[in-house]
Amino acid sequence: MKLYLLRELYQKNNIPEDKLSYAIDLIILLNSQVELDLDAITTDSLDKIIEYMVDEKLNTVENFIVLMRYYHVLDRKDLYIHLTKYTGMLGVMENIIKRLINLKGEEKANTILDGFKPPYLGVHPKNLPDYAKRITSILENNLTETEVESVLAGNNHSIPKESQLPEKIAYETSETFSEYLKARHNRKVEELKKYFNENKVWFEQVITQEVIDFVSSNQEVLSGVLKDEKLYITKIPYDTLAYLNAKDKKEKHYYGCHCPFAREAILKGNLDISGRFCYCSAGFAKFPFEVILNQKLKVKVLKSILMGNDICRFQIDLKDIDYKK
């Protein structure tokens, strides 16, 4: 084990000594559960480690962060990204339930949910589609289409508004919304170039020149295009390089879909999750623009991988919205 690298990371970032000691103890404990050194394990072995953490009630956010930090300093991008497949579901179902309660009241919402519980941290990604299938079915059977979409299309990842303030300032200093969108896209492309040059993982994926070229060619990706008072947004694939080099449709859709609650169903060919669940992703796409424009926005799913398309594309109607024209 290369615990000295973890120590260097904690010290460099002024993380308290007691947290460093805890992190080292955890890595040593988890290392005792594998035949090989923890540094050399595969994703399958990491799955078994996580099973152990669940059994021993060690499946906390803090412990997952320790593992992610460790594999970051080891430059084990495969294991770091694999961990994000577990953590990507955090808070999503809980936030959907909160909006259902806000819409229908707690008593009625509990009746509608009929005992449904969100997944715990450590549920294998292969089992997450079962949760998506059930919650969408529950909502569709008890709410109108408009209500279902409203309940699903929120800030389900609890992204802080403050994280969007630099973009809000960039918008406010732009002459028009279209000018802002173009500049935003240019900034995002430059950001990808930076990660490529520094050999760093950008969210869940490794950046290559192919990825940069793909994003550069379409302003809707990581930004948006304004046309006839409608904003069009196309989601960047989950693993863009694999998406571009996919051997067949199923593989392309698997690497294109970001949703931790749907991806494994795509791989298994078990696509019985309602496409309306993609309004969850639509909510993610519209949230930054709600902060930037300081207004609630309505979003529509135009295309999604769950619906059989090769991309996920959304439309935000700005007809009655105040924005810089």
Pick out its properties.
two-stranded antiparallel sheet; single chain; 6 strands; alpha+beta; globular
Describe this structure in words.
The protein is an alpha+beta fold. The protein has helices spanning 3-12, 17-31, 43-55, 61-73, 77-87, 92-104, 106-113, 128-142, 145-152, 165-172, 177-197, 209-216, 240-244, 249-256, 263-268, 279-293; strands at 201-202, 205-206, 225-227, 230-234, 299-303, 313-317. It has 16 helices and six strands. Strands 3-4-6-5 form a four-stranded antiparallel β-sheet. A two-stranded antiparallel sheet has the order 1-2. A hairpin with a 2-residue loop joins strand 3 and strand 4 (230-234). The mean pLDDT is 95.
Strand residues, percent? 5-15%
Mean pLDDT: 95
State the end-to-end CA separation.
57 Å
Gross morphology: globular
H/E series:
HHHHHHHHHHHEEHEEHHHHEE
Number of strands: 6
Parts with pLDDT < 50 across at least 5 consecutive residues: none
Give the radius of gyration.
Answer: 21 Å
Total helical elements: 16
Percentage of residues in helical conformation: 40-55%
The SS-based structural class is alpha+beta
Which strand order do you get reading across the main beta sheet?
A: 3-4-6-5
Main β-sheet: number of strands, strand sense, barrel status?
Answer: 4 strands, antiparallel
